[in-house]
Write a structure and sequence with these properties.
CATH architecture of one domain: 3-Layer(aba) Sandwich
Strand content: 5-15%
Structural class: alpha/beta
Shape: globular
Number of helices: 8
Distance between the termini: 31 Å
Bound molecules: 3-methylbut-3-enyl trihydrogen diphosphate, magnesium ion
Radius of gyration: 19 Å
CATH superfamily of one domain: Decaprenyl diphosphate synthase-like
Largest sheet: 6 strands, parallel
Number of strands: 6
Oligomer: single chain
Length: 261
């Protein structure tokens, strides 16, 4: 959606010396921006705090990222909040995260209403505690009519499990005679992923300097531009977001072709 230029200018006032709104082309904002929100634990440990404090601080960064995405006119924002592998963490940390997801969503719902952001979840929500599932459902119901931006939060998400699930859904349809093996193509798989109907990410941002995907959107990131910052997630802000967009706009996307052919 077209950004509101007045709100955009106000949001990016007081720029630091190395980056400002003028450094990016507002007509070429990535349509879908995705985040691997990493480094909450290390942020807290560096301050002598419990890891949980890092997760709590990370909520502020996510709120800023949602608002920043709306101001820039991004169509789809997605963020990795909890992976299928994160269940391996100490029970206490898992419980805290599940509770934090629920309480944060309740607290932040007014922001989604105010900005007309539609909520969506990527992942298997069945395995989540009832409290979290109920709040998520409320968020989905209350924001279903909004179209300024889609915010897709990946919770209990794992890309391999997602692709295996798509294969299983297709196999069931073939076995039931509703689909022929020769109809199984890239679109058929895409339509059975949690991201069905969303455009693939144009830009992936990972914080905390890690150079890996950690089982995130393996299929959807095929031609996504990547930006890794050393900042821990609780330190991520609108200025680092602009730096990521500036880097994105400096890239030449070829999708396997050649330039000026
Ligand atoms: C990311 O921060 C948040 C989640 C995975 C839930 P981490 O908790 O992974 O923080 P680090 O990587 O241990 O610093
Ligand atoms: C990826 O971060 C998952 C999320 C950000 C939710 P991790 O911290 O779990 O990834 P690894 O273990 O460093 O690969
Ligand atoms: Mg991590």
């Amino acid at each position: 959606m077209q950004p509101n230029m007045e709100k955009l200018g106000a949001y990016f006032a007081d720029a630091p010396s190395d980056i400002s709104l003028q450094d990016i082309d507002i007509a070429r904002i990535p349509r879908h921006v995705s985040f691997i929100m990493d480094g909450n634990g290390r942020w807290a440990q560096a301050r002598g705090l419990d890891r949980s404090k890092g997760h709590v601080a990370g909520v502020d960064s996510l709120r800023e990222t949602v608002t920043c995405s709306v101001r820039l006119g991004v169509d789809v924002l997605s963020a990795y909040a909890f992976s299928t592998e994160n269940w391996k963490r100490p029970q206490r940390e898992v419980n805290l995260l599940m509770h934090l997801f629920a309480t944060t969503l309740v607290k932040e719902l007014p922001l989604f209403h105010q900005e007309h952001v539609r909520l969506r979840f990527l992942g298997d929500l069945e395995a989540l505690p009832a409290e979290t599932r109920e709040v998520f459902q409320r968020g989905l119901d209350e924001t279903a009519g909004y179209d300024v931006m889609t915010f897709a939060l990946a919770v209990n998400y794992g890309s391999r499990a997602e692709i295996a699930r798509a294969a299983r859904l297709i196999a069931e349809e073939v076995a039931a005679g509703r689909m022929r093996p020769e109809d199984v193509d890239v679109d058929a798989v895409s339509q059975r992923l949690y991201t069905a109907g969303l455009p693939d990410p144009d830009l992936l941002v990972r914080t905390s300097g890690e150079l890996r995907l950690s089982n995130y959107l393996l299929w959807q990131l095929a031609y996504t531009e990547m930006y890794v910052t050393d900042l821990f997630w609780p330190d991520f802000d609108r200025w680092e977001y602009l730096r990521a967009v500036r880097a994105f706009q400096g890239r030449g996307r070829r999708y396997g072709g050649v330039v000026n052919s």
